[in-house]
Amino acid sequence: MKRILLVMAASVLLAGCPSTYMPENKAPVETVTPPPEVEPVTPPPVDVVPIPPKQTAVDWSAVVAPLITQMASADSVESGKILLVDSVKNNTNGALPVAKVTSAIVNTVDNTGRFNLVPQDVVVSARKALGLSQEDSLVTRSKAIGLGRYVQANYVLYSVVSGSKDNRDIEMQLLSVQSGEILWSGDGKIDQ
């Protein structure tokens, strides 16, 4: 009987041993579906960049020279007086090289020898003092006359370019600073 008890005790001990006990804890298995095949993305066709039309350069000196000649020979204009050439006003529907046009007018007037011009650096500092921008697109005759009074000029040359890109005109007026009277007026077509 001792033997039976020993065998039973041994079997109970062996049955309770954790090394022989294996639980059924399995990790969950997930099925992975492969992603759908992606077609390679082809870039859109490259559009050819259109070449912009060539911009024709305007010879501003040639445009303003006939008008300046008319102005210099006007009967109501006295020689040797001080003339302020105001910035050109742009009334076109596009960009206009205002500084280039104004410079062409100044050089052409200077070549006539009929007027004493207000130097452009004096005009720039006077504009700053009066709070007028160099690129003022709202240039008016009254602003031009006020600027002329500030620099003590006798005359102001007021110029306006108007029209569309293909059909532009320039109008010039010589104004008396003292009275505001238009002493001379002329206009011309701008050929490209």
UniProtKB/TrEMBL annotation:
PROSITE patterns referenced in this protein's UniProt entry, alphabetically: PROKAR_LIPOPROTEIN
Entry's Gene Ontology cellular component terms: periplasmic side of cell outer membrane
GO MF term (any one): enzyme regulator activity
Top-level taxonomic group: Bacteria
Protein keywords: Cell outer membrane, Cell shape, Lipoprotein, Membrane, Palmitate, Peptidoglycan synthesis, Signal
Gene3D superfamilies: ABC-type transport auxiliary lipoprotein component (3.40.50.10610)
Assigned protein family: Belongs to the LpoB family.
Quaternary structure note: Interacts with PBP1b.
Protein name: Penicillin-binding protein activator LpoB
Organism per entry: Moellerella wisconsensis ATCC 35017
